[in-house]
Amino acid sequence: MQKTTRRQVSAAHDMDLLASRAALWAYREQRPVTAAEIAAHFNLPVHTARRVIHAILHRVDGTRCTLEMHTTLNPDTGQKRPLKYFTVHYLPGEENRPG
């Protein structure tokens, strides 16, 4: 069994903190958001934003969220492409917090 390093613990903590901030932002938006929107808002690469969404989806703290896929037309080529929308429906502790 490998020993966990401080760097790994720090990276896990940073991802958890980023997931909390992204979940709060998506909840306050009150609309479906894409990974590209999360990436732009938090100044992240899109791949990292996808990992953040994945971390939020696997939380067990009572956060209720969905990931839905819709097909849209690519404006450049006219072909259909999948687009995933992420929505946070319920965030524990947010129902009593003002605006």
SSE layout and pairing:
Elements: H1 6-29, H2 35-42, H3 46-57, E1 64-73, E2 80-90
Antiparallel strand pairs: 1-2
InterPro entries: WH-like_DNA-bd_sf
Organism: Klebsiella oxytoca
Protein name: Rrf2 family transcriptional regulator
What does this protein structure show overall?
InterPro entries: WH-like_DNA-bd_sf (IPR036388). It comes from Klebsiella oxytoca. This is Rrf2 family transcriptional regulator. This protein has one domain: Winged helix-like DNA-binding domain superfamily/Winged helix DNA-binding domain (Arc Repressor Mutant, subunit A). With 99 residues, it is an alpha+beta fold. It is built from three helices and two strands; from the N terminus they run αααββ. A hairpin with a 6-residue loop joins strand 1 and strand 2. The radius of gyration is 16 Å and the shape is globular. 44% of the residues lie in helices and 21% in strands. The mean pLDDT is 87. Strands 1-2 form a two-stranded antiparallel ribbon.
